[in-house]
Amino acid sequence: MPESSKAANSSNSTGSAKKLVLVVVDGMRPSSLASAIDDGAAPTFARLIREGYASSECISSFPSLTPVATSMIVTGNGPDRHGVPSMHWYKRDERRYVDYGISFPAARRSGLISVLKDLVYRINEEHLSASTPTFFESLERAGIRCACTTYMIYRGPHEHEFIGSGVPGALAGVTGMSRPGYGPTDLIYGDIFDSRGTDCRSNYGVPGRRDQHTACAGIEIVADGGYDFLLLSFPDNDNYSHRLGPEAQPASIANADAQFQRVIDSYGGYRRFTEDHAVIVVSDHSHSKVNEGVDLLLMLAEHEWDVLAPRQGRRKRNAAQIAASPAARVGNLYVLDEDRLGTEVPLLVHDLRRQATIDQVLWLEAGNEAAVAMGEAELRFAPGTQYEDLRGQKWDVDGDLSALGLQTQDGLIFSERYPDALARSWSGLTCADTGDVMVTPEIGYEFFDWGGVAHVGGGTHGSLHHADSAAQLIVHGTGESREHQSTWSIADINNLILEHFTARR
Ligand SMILES: [Zn+2]
User: Fold this and answer.
1) Number of domains the chain is built from
2) Looking at the structure, do residues 53 and 197 belong to the same domain, yes or no?
3) Is 234 contained in some domain?
4) Tens digits of residue pLDDT in 24-77
5) What's the gap in Å between 143 CA and the centre of ligand 1?
6) pLDDT tens digits, residue range 226-246?
7) Enclosing domain of residue 185
8) SS3 labels along 376-417
9) Distance from the CA of 477 to the center of ligand 1, in angstroms?
10) Residues with CB under 5 A from ligand 1 (ion)
């Protein structure tokens, strides 16, 4: 046994160090949490903030979409290193679209079985880079036992049998879905993996039933006590906000708070729970309001681009010029003939940048330089020495700073409208499977996906914009040295967790 595991185990056996619970509330908008707290509807989160510390400016990944952000929370790295580029993207070597379930109509076009395999298995086993360990992998390697409820990224060293039963189980057997998954010591994931053989059921992951499933699983896990780190994922808020809008979130945040409270109550109440557990609460991204949909596919067709459709036949596939992945408030465009990159990328940028509903167009230039266009404004940038951003990374910039809403002062460079804009767009653009051109719509707009779905009248996210990107962080009982940290990224969660278990040895 390595030295580090011995240290961790002896620390556990003394009972002096706290366990750690990470609570993820998908898409929780900080101002909606504040409303819920003002109304007395989120008493647990309120108390954790009162007794610990919090930030309403914990900045998400770009794209600010759950698969990208979740991978960032779990690995501490952006998409340039973790490798998951979007919710829907084109996989060049397989000549197909990857879809983690952006909407049911889009999933029907991608193929439902393929979507389930991408969502449950391939994101963990193939798309998430093997060279960026998850916190489950880092902690388990050091002898720290981890437990996880249904979460998009669960990758860890322990094999878990597929437990689907009844009709879905039989269907899974036929379609090759019934493989084991590899996760932390304990994994209770939908109705698919259940290392404890609980009676908790999620009705196959129907939105609105998932938070109670997490609470049910959490109650079983804390009753047994065989864990040091527990991830409780409350995903229902995101779907609720997509349907009803970010201003409706206080109701779904109240539900997440109540479901977390069920776990706490089962342990003997708040005081006993927080005596034994440090708690981190985080949302992976925020939500902005959708007033109107934008048909990116139609926009491309009007400029006579031949766009590859999902599961298109070979003849049409060979004729297509580009693949396009509109996903909420970001789109990725892929030039299919790599010999034509030098001519088609500038043409795509030209066709999109002056559209009234398009906010930003982003691409990589030869020579390892990034470019952003917003209407007439154009900016080029790369890691360098000229300016320092608020998180200490240094950049060279050239052109019109307004393309990323940037300001400079005393050698610092920053953007209020697009927080951490340079580092986030650089990380998004330099992810291997990102499109050759990225595009975001104006605030208030969302791209229709391949199933024709946009959440008009509801909420969404995905862009660099502050409204999509500023997430909530609450820290209680750990990371005291970071209490006055002025800028936060969801990438910091990984370090907070690893530091908790290093510090206690
Ligand atoms: Zn969402």
Assistant:
1) 2
2) yes
3) yes
4) 999 999 999 999 999 999 999 999 999 999 999 999 999 999 999 999 999 999
5) 34
6) 999 999 999 999 999 999 999
7) 20-84+128-289+465-503
8) CEEEEEEEEEEEECCCCCEEEEEECHHHHCEEEECCEEEECC
9) 29
10) 238
